[in-house]
Amino acid sequence: MTFRLPAIWVLFLLAPACLCAEAKTIRVPRGGEVPEVVLDAKGVLHMTYGRGAAGNGYYVQSKDLGKTFTAPVQLNQRADMVTAGRERGPKLTVGQDGVLHVVWLGYYKEGGGVWYTRSTDGGKTFEAERNLTELKPAWDNATVAADQDGNVFVFWTGQWPGLPNEDPKSPVASPIIMTRSTDNGKTFANSELVKHDYPGRACGCCRLEAQVGTDESLYIGFRGGFENIRDPDLLKGKKAENNFKVSRISEDKWDFE
Predict the structure, then answer these.
(1) Which phi and psi angles does 237 have, rounded to 5°?
(2) Which domain CATH number covers 241?
(3) Burial, 25: exposed, middle or buried (Cβ in 10 Å; 0-12, 13-18, 19+)?
């Protein structure tokens, strides 16, 4: 099981012997933006972050709960092609055999796309990035989840063939799209529209998160867009299927307008 903590500053909660807890914030190395942090089963902290709207992505790790970090490894071989800022930055998860899976949004002025790379040597090196989007619409909010059986799931929001770009009942909102790998990121299937019973689309400028559960379930967290209400929602489905049921996380009734 891995745990994520995205933030501009990274917060660590330490509870030695479960007797007390200490909260500590640390700055992301080298002025990094939009970090993603995963704590693996061995106690290693894995972190990705970006630098610049048309910049680069980096990976570091810590074996002492953030006191020190390794030298950064650049994720992208195509220089200055990573979007970082606000909720956008490289997203990270740990899969089967400790393989690190990372996705990010390509820079929109240079073609955009949802880009993927992985490391099979514990973060020392990363494979050449691959664009997982065979279609040519707009993309946003890319995220990734993986399990210990070799399944990797990548999600994003964007346009979809056959659907109108604008939904009057979900303004400024987009469908959720996914692609999956069953061989630990070696190959990915064609992308598909996520099927669910939420009545509208997901907020087009709000973050997605995904996580594989211990009960063969797959979860997708998002802000809704139906009738302009941006309350947070959760989709739950079986990881082997594409059929999700929605649950409302809160009833804030935040109207986007």
Answers:
(1) -155, 175
(2) 2.120.10.10
(3) exposed
Does residue 111 belong to any structural domain of this protein? Answer: no
Q: Is 116 within the bounds of a domain? A: no
**CB burial class (10 A; 0-12, 13-18, 19+) of residue 33?**
middle
Does 141 share its domain with 228?
Answer: yes
Residue pLDDT, tens place only, 191-249: 999 999 999 999 987 889 999 998 899 999 999 999 999 999 999 999 999 999 999 99
Q: Based on the structure, what is the number of domains in the chain?
A: 2
Burial of 240 (0-12, 13-18, 19+ CB in 10 A): exposed
Residue 255 to residue 251: CA distance in whole angstroms: 11
Tell me the pTM. Answer: 0.90
Q: What distance in Å separates the CA atoms of residue 113 and residue 94, rounded to the nearest whole number? A: 22
Residues 238, 159 share a domain: yes
| Short-list 250, 246, 126, CA closest to 185 | 126
Residue 254, domain extent? 132-257
CA–CA distance, 123 with 143 (Å, rounded to integer): 19
Spatial separation of the C-alpha atoms in residues 117 and 142, rounded to whole Å: 13
Q: Which two tokens stand for residue 6?
A: 């995205």
Predicted local confidence at residue 108, as pLDDT = 86
- Alpha carbons 145 and 49: distance in angstroms, whole number: 17
Would residue 159 count as lying in a domain?
A: yes
Q: Are strands 56-62 and 45-51 parallel, antiparallel or unpaired?
A: antiparallel
